[in-house]
Specification:
The chain has a two-stranded antiparallel sheet with strand order 1-2. The protein is built from six helices and two strands. It has helices at residues 3-30, 45-51, 69-79, 81-84, 121-131, 142-155, and strands at residues 66-68, 164-166.
Amino acid sequence: MGVKSKLFFVNVVIFVVFVMAAGFVAYAQQSKQPATFGIGRPATPAEIAAEDIDIGPDGAGLPPGKGTAAEGAVVYAAKCAQCHGKTGKEGPNDVLVGRGEFPSGADTTSRRTIGNYWPYATTVFDYIRRAMPSPAPGSLKDDEVYALTAFLLAQNEIIPNDAVMDATSLPKVAMPARDKFVPDTRGKKK
């Protein structure tokens, strides 16, 4: 193949690529995405409310109900001990009970527990309510969640055994690790 033939071939390839690219651009401009895909429907306010159950550090959104450590001990034995151990210290899954020093990033031996790592009692409630028990997350009644939270806080020596946890008392619990975390101020007025 001579120089003229190679040059001609390169020009033809460039021309073909240009024509194809122009065609793709024209097609893309004509076939815009539809406004909707014609499936599903808007969620109702009741459906949104059923899913909007998160509880923040300040306790906003805590439901009515109450529970004590004694009531929580019964629920714990029935629904939690098989995964977290008889007292919350054994496992086989996460150890829930234990105090001591705040585990730092370099510390690979200390266990992170409710008693030494969790910053807010309200988020203990939130986690239990949404994620526990493992075989049936979200199945506990609010009174059971308050009772379990009270039981775990009492086991970690954060509240007295006779304390009643509810929407008023739970946000007032001062967790040992609260000052070890940086508050999340996203979305708050400055």
